[in-house]
Structures are given as C-alpha cells and as structure tokens.
Amino acid sequence: MCGPFSSFQGIIRLVEMIFSALAVVLFRGTMVVPWGIWCAFVWVLCIVVPLVLLVMESKGWHILLVAFLPNWADLTLGLTALCCISVVSATVAFAAVFVCLTCIADILCFIFSLVATVCFLVDVVKQRSAFGSGYMSSLRGTLRILEAFVACMIFTAAADHFVRGKWFYKPSGMVLCAVIFGVCLLDTVAIIVLHLLKLLQCLLVFRLNLVEFVFNIVAVVLYVLAVILWTVFGYSCYRHNPYTCIKCSYADMNAVTVGSALNLVLYIVDLILSIKSL
Length: 278
Known about the structure:
The chain is an all-alpha fold. It has eight helices and no strands.
C-alpha cells in the first residue's frame, strides 16, 4: 500500500472507516428510536473522524493550525479515544435493543461494529504509547472525555424514555434534569476546547484552572440535584411506565440514574484534582 496507507496508523484508520461504514450500511434499526439515532450517529462519527485526520495528516494541513492547536497528536488521541468509547456504547446498545437470533443483517452489523471497536482500541493504545503527553492523554483530559460521553448516553436514555412515555406526562423535575445534563455537557466541551486551543484562553478574565474549579463545584451541586429529582419524579410514578414488557420496565430510567451517579463521581474526582491544581 502507498500514500497515507503505507503506515500502521493509516491502515488502522482505513479499517476503522471500512467496518464503521459496513455497520451503517447493514443498520436496520428504526431512526425514530433514540438508541437507533445514537448508533447511527456514532458509526458515522467513526467514519468522519479517521477520514478527516487521515486527510489532514497526509496533506500536511495540520501544520497550518499550529498557532491555534500546538499539540496535534494530543487532539488525535482525544478524538480517537472519544470514537473508541462511543463505538463501544453503540455496539452494546445495538446488541441490547436491535439484535435477535434470526436477524442475520443485525448480527453482521453487530460483528462489524465489534471489529471497529477493537480497531479503535488498538489505535488508542498505539497512540498513547507513542504520544503519551498532553491534556487529552492526561487524567484530567480523560475525565473530561468520560464526562461528555456519559452525558451523551444519559441524554439518549432520557430521550428514549420521553419518546416511549405518554406525551402528557413529562414532569418538570425530569425536564429540569435534562436541562442540567445539557448545561454541564456544553460547559465540559467548552473546557476541552479551551485546553486544546490555547489562544482562546486569552479571552478569559480569570485563569482557566480557577474557571474549572468553579465549574466543577457547580456541576457537582447540579448533578446531586439531578440524581434526586430524577429518582423522585421517575420512580414514584409507576403508573406511567411507558414500556410494553415487564422486563424492559424502567430500563431507560435506570440508565439515566446510573449514568447521573457515575457522572457525579467523575465530577467529584475532577473537583478534587482541580483543587490540587490551584
């Protein structure tokens, strides 16, 4: 092979794109269901990200961004890690929601997604061993990626619960939880961008470490509130269970509850680390 595919990095990215594309082609899930939208979005993301990185590096265009993005390897590692954990979630969600023993196309789709997951995992390990420095490869950067990823999973589960539920029963407390998840997600993404694009930090009135510290305090308080509200308003109204099967009962509510608790723990750990960095 030649050109951008002459190296291991180029070959592994090509394989990632091929199997992600095969998963998209064989996908038979309904796009009305939020989990179906999430799976399709992740597989398309796993095509676009390696493709963009491959083109940027093969053409040398990433050098033009050095003033805004001084550590290109750090960005590629972060994006690859995001694709890795996202495709893991898509593979598991697709297997749980759509795959059946008699659905050949769905089984093949699951297998292709699983192969793409392994490829991204190998890619992350390889990049981390070669470029193990920078914000995205640090503990703080890893925490931010996980916080954003878990928030996306929470959103998907909450949306699936609201879509399947009765249109007139959407308690204000549960809606407020969705707003909290969205605000924290946007702020988390903004902090990641500020760390990657150093020039944007000049726009801040205070040091970025102080901004992170304040945000982590607010995020912890909001997530504590969200866990309480989601539990109180969700589980107390058993008559409004939107599912048609008993085994599926409260599946999405449980996912949101567990995800919220997990993100709360992540933000608490981040808060502790931000205190140490002041």
